[in-house]
Design goal:
Main location: membrane
Radius of gyration: 38 Å
Family: In the N-terminal section; belongs to the glycosyltransferase 51 family.
Largest sheet: 5 strands, mixed
Mean pLDDT: 87
Subcellular location: Cell inner membrane
Number of strands: 32
Number of helices: 23
GO molecular function, one term: serine-type D-Ala-D-Ala carboxypeptidase activity
Low-confidence stretches: 7-11, 764-774
Strand content: 15-25%
GO cellular component, one term: outer membrane-bounded periplasmic space
Helix content: 25-40%
Length: 774
């Protein structure tokens, strides 16, 4: 029995080796237990974190991916038989829009030209009235402007044909990012091919992350001792750009990879590619970050992406690697070398022939002139646009994404106005320091503001003198005094004698006031037309007193003067404070056959879905009867031909122009307002401190207008017969209406209602008339 006990004891006794083995197995069991629990916990964390990331990604991709800045467009030039658009103006417009001049247009964006015709292959574009398809037309011109627009395909003459508007700028309201969204189907295929060759060749094979590319990049970088190659896929780059910062850390890379896998799982490759093409950072335009290929095309080349050459497309793909490092204006040799590398990859892949490759690498970079901004600096005009959008559509509109605002701005008129202001003020400043300027140009036919300059440095964003100044307008008020007197059923005609004798009146302060003519002389009496074209003060005051100061104030108010008027006699000589915009408003009425329409800067607004936003129409009414307005326009043409603006008429002989000079007391303010068949302009030149300038209307403001017309050749005013106006004949001395065969008469337009010529000439009978008993 003892033996049995001993044997049992012997068999249960453990050796050191067995104890170590048991301890090892227990340790591994414990490690395994902890490991799978940690792994399970980690998996849970990753799962929940992935769900969290998935929600963030879904919200971004399925909602509004980007806030697209409001796009602001110029007017769309309308061409139709009789349109006041000259051949040179049309050529300049096409150059501004980036059309290419060729011998024979073969594709969209090209045109050819002879001396009287232009053949154009117009681009498709979004018009406020709907999508406009590409179209090839022949535009013919004569001395009056456009004579016909014919569609090349079927020789059909078009009633109206629109050019696409110029994209002036985008209103950035958010994070400073700027982009133009372009769908993938509108991207050139070569850009997509080059992008995949350079950045992610296995894009359609991997699932968001490419382990082989990461390993290859790591090996290359370790071998080089620095980072020379990246292993990120396009999807990873998109995840970083969309959701992450540029911080370099392992945690950020892990998060980037995880998001890339989720993005690839949730969305198609085409959706990912479209997002990348519109998100990728492409450069810096001062304070604006340029994102996406669409905007980059405009930024670097000033053209839509659909019209880029293969070399230009390769340039954009090359820039992705480092927009600052490959800045073409600073380092042209760097970007050209990389562009050529992209082109070689396209050739090696069979996407370019050898001949195409050679032609592309030999082509210049052809980037836009850096001195010409990628977007126009129009601080004065844009301030008015924003104010009008706020008044008509509400202050929340500009915060919406994808809004398109169509304006009245004429880019050619704006360019001419800026050049005129810059050149003229530089010349005037030589003898008269501290001068400033405000200028407004309107479209005679639409009542839209075509151009605006608020400072002698047009791009300066500050005090807008075109809108904000209030200065005495001087003789610019006189046409409205005469329009009041020449109203239908009035006793006055253009030939009516007006007293030009000393007169004393009481002014608004109760003090006596004795107005003087400019030359301090009196002529006894002068015809009404002479008083206006020579801008004579005393006859104008006498006329204004006769018709009533209140009646003149009413005419001015009905013509669009929005601010209160002090109805004192001094008002008749321009003791009325106004701005160039206010003057342009009332002169627009004179130019538009007496029709008042409130000036506007915005013609239409489309939302992100291309739907026009409803808005109340602006008021329109007949402020001055058309027949009276005809007489005033005639008189203002005489101001240019033989009056105070003769220098303007001499500069453009044979061209019908209408205008009026104005000068305030002590030559503190120089004014001019005038118009041709296309535009109305109102200009002020003076000093911000209201100091004396020694300038008159003809030597200051009119000089700006003259320079404007030299940059933008005027179109002669058309003589159109107006009902209620006849050709009258008036005695030069008495102003009495007579027959056409009488002697000592002047032929002048007259109102039918008031023109009553005498039956005979009122002259002594000749001997033969006495014999015949006449």
């Amino acid at each position: 029995m003892n033996d049995e006990v001993d044997m049992t004891t012997k068999t249960t006794k453990k050796t050191p080796a067995s104890r170590r083995a048991n301890n090892g197995r227990g340790f591994f069991r414990r490690v395994w237990s902890i490991t799978w629990k940690l792994a399970l916990a980690g998996l849970a964390v990753v799962t929940f974190y992935s769900i969290y990331l998935d929600q963030i990604i879904a919200q971004k991709f399925e909602g509004q991916k980007w806030h697209l800045p409001a796009q602001v467009f110029s007017r769309s030039m309308a061409l139709y038989p009789g349109a006041a658009v000259s051949h040179p103006q049309m050529m300049a417009e096409l150059k501004l829009l980036g059309y290419r001049k060729v011998a024979n247009p073969r594709q969209v964006g090209e045109f050819s030209a002879s001396s009287t015709r232009i053949e154009l292959w117009r681009r498709p574009f979004l018009h406020p009235e709907g999508d406009q398809v590409e179209q090839r037309v022949m535009i013919s011109f004569d001395s009056n402007g456009v004579s016909s627009v014919t569609r090349v395909s079927d020789k059909r003459q078009l009633a109206v044909f629109h050019l696409e508007p110029v994209l002036l700028d985008r209103i950035i309201t958010g994070d400073g990012e700027d982009r133009l969204f372009v769908p993938t189907e509108e991207m050139p295929k070569s850009i997509v091919q080059a992008l995949l060759l350079v950045e992610d060749r296995s894009f359609y094979e991997h699932h968001g992350v490419n382990p082989f590319a990461i390993a290859r990049a790591a090996f290359v970088n370790i071998s080089a001792g620095r980072t020379v190659q990246g292993g990120s896929t396009l999807t990873q780059q998109l995840a970083k750009n969309f959701f992450l910062s540029s911080e370099r850390s392992l945690l950020r890379k892990v998060r980037e990879a995880l998001m890339a896998v989720i993005i690839d799982f949730r969305y198609s490759k085409d959706e990912i590619l479209e997002a990348y093409l519109n998100e990728v950072y492409m450069g810096q335009d001062k304070s604006r970050a340029v994102h996406g290929m669409g905007l980059a095309s405009r930024f670097y080349f000033g053209r839509p992406i659909s019209e880029l050459t293969i070399a230009q497309q390769a340039f954009l793909v090359a820039t992705i690697k480092g927009p600052s490092y490959y800045n073409p204006w600073r380092y042209p040799e760097r970007i050209q070398e990389r562009r050529d590398l992209v082109l070689r990859l396209l050739m090696d892949a069979g996407d370019l022939t050898t001949a195409e490759y050679k032609a592309a690498v030999e082509s210049p970079l052809a980037i836009r002139n850096l001195n010409k901004p990628a977007h126009q600096k129009l601080p004065s005009f844009f301030a008015l646009v924003k104010q009008e959008v706020n008044d008509r559509y509400g202050d929340a509109l500009l915060k919406q994404s994808g809004v398109k605002i169509y304006t009245t701005l004429d880019p050619m008129a704006q360019e001419a106005a800026e050049k005129a202001v810059t050149q003229t003020l530089k010349s005037l400043d030589k003898s008269n320091k501290s001068l400033q300027v405000g200028m407004v140009v309107t479209d005679k036919y639409t009542g839209g503001i075509a151009a605006m300059v608020g400072d002698k440095t047009p791009g300066f964003d500050g005090f807008n003198r075109a809108v904000e100044i209030r200065r005495p307008i001087g003789s610019l008020i006189k046409p409205f005094v005469y329009a009041t007197a020449l109203a239908p059923n009035s006793q006055f005609t253009l030939a009516t004698p007006l007293k030009d004798q000393p007169i004393t009146l009481k002014n608004e302060q109760g003090k006596t006031w004795s107005p003087q003519n400019f030359d301090k002389k009196f002529s006894g009496q002068v015809p009404l037309l002479t008083a206006l074209k020579k801008s004579m003060n005393v006859p104008t005051v006498n006329l204004g007193i006769a018709v009533g100061v209140d009646a003149v104030a009413t005419t001015l108010a009905k013509s669009g003067w929005q601010e209160p008027l002090n109805e004192y006699p001094s008002m008749l000589l321009g003791a009325v404070n106004g701005s160039p915009l206010m003057v342009a408003q009332v002169y627009q009425t004179l130019a538009d056959s007496g029709v008042y329409r409130k000036l506007t800067t915005v013609t239409a607004v489309l939302d992100a879905d291309k739907n026009p936003l409803p808005v109340t129409r602006l008021p329109k009414e007949q402020a001055i009867s058309p027949d009276t307005d005809f007489l005033i326009q005639y008189a203002m043409q005489q101001v240019v031909n033989t009056g105070t603006a003769t220098r303007l008429g001499n500069a453009f002989p044979g061209v019908g122009l209408a205008g009026k000079t104005g000068t305030s007391n002590d030559s503190r303010d120089s004014w001019f307002a005038g118009f041709d068949e296309r535009n109305v302009a109102a200009i002020w030149v003076g000093r911000d401190d209201n100091g004396k300038t020694s300038l008159y209307g003809s030597s200051g403001a009119m000089a700006v207008y003259l320079a404007f017309l030299k940059e933008r050749p005027p179109i002669s005013l058309r003589s159109i017969q107006v009902n209620g106006v006849v050709k009258g004949f008036f005695d030069r001395d008495t102003g009495v209406a007579k027959e056409s065969d009488c002697s000592n008469v002047d032929a002048l337009p007259a109102l039918t209602a008031t023109y009553r010529p005498v039956n005979n000439c009122g002259e002594p009978l000749q001997w033969w008339q006495k014999i015949l008993g006449q």
